[in-house]
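Backbone-to-sequence.
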């Protein structure tokens, strides 16, 4: 946490703008960075604003001003998604091999080129207002509440290495939500304005055999392995191999579901519906890189 406090201090100094009489505009006066960060983390973990304002002796408006400043600042100072960093690295295959090694250990060497497990998580939001009713209905999911669809990718150690925070409506199918994401276009060689980096990354992944794994909601392709469809009997010839594959595939894929479960228990704000600008706060990259916050 001390490192994050230092990064926030440096960020606010760099972003501060001179005000009247030489004053500095950038963060609340008389409240140190440690208190602001502690207040924000407590709120992200599910604390009530009533308790937090009482504990830290701040006014309600000051509390929300701090939240509005600190969360974007955290998103600015945290490093890039690990998967993005790995793919941009000229020696990317070394980073990808380290990601694949985790899933290889998890499956006793059966799956040795998996670099991440992908799935979608529904983040609750308040019912959209002031929008076209038809568009508002797209946020109402099959589970009976308004939400957005966030696509996340994790490694074998339950760390989120990429998440698409694009405010995709909750009724969107996981497969479609993934296909509309920038990462999908980048690894499939369809990225634009990247000086050919997307096509080079796609070629590297295909040649190296690297791929993601997901459930049957996704479409199987060279870079995304899904379960073998159907039910199988291990006593029938030719079906035992398919059953074995599905078993180890499930062992590796469940890591993303466990990751989402850990995040939801740690950052209870992910279960609370919010409206307005707090929608982005409730699914900020800072939460999905939670291991770097504490």
């Amino acid at each position: 946490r001390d490192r994050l406090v230092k990064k926030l201090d440096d960020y606010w100094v760099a972003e501060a703008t001179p005000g009247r009489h030489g004053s500095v505009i950038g963060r609340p006066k008389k409240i140190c960075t440690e208190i602001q960060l502690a207040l924000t983390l407590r709120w992200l973990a599910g604390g009530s604003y009533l308790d937090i304002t009482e504990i830290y002796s701040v006014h309600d408006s000051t509390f929300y001003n701090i939240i509005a400043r600190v969360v974007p600042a955290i998103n600015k100072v945290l490093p890039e998604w690990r998967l993005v960093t790995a793919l941009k690295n000229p020696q990317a295959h070394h980073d990808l091999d380290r990601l694949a090694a985790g899933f290889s250990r998890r499956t006793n060497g059966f799956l040795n080129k998996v670099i991440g497990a992908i799935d979608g998580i529904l983040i609750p939001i308040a019912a959209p207002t002031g929008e076209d009713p038809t568009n508002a209905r797209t946020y109402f999911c099959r589970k009976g509440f308004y939400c957005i669809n966030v696509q996340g990718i994790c490694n074998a150690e339950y760390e989120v290495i990429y998440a698409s925070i694009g405010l995709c409506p909750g009724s969107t199918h996981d497969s479609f939500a993934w296909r509309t994401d920038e990462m999908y276009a980048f690894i499939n060689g369809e990225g634009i304005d990247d000086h050919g980096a997307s096509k080079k990354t796609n070629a590297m992944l295909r040649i190296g055999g690297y791929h993601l794994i997901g459930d049957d909601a996704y479409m199987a392709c060279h870079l995304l392995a899904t379960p073998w469809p159907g039910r199988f009997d291990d006593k029938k010839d030719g079906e035992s191999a398919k059953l074995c594959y599905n078993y180890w595939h499930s062992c590796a894929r469940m890591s993303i579901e466990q990751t989402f479960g850990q995040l939801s228990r740690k950052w209870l704000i992910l279960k609370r519906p919010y409206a307005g600008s707090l929608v982005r706060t409730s699914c900020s990259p800072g939460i999905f890189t939670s291991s770097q916050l504490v």
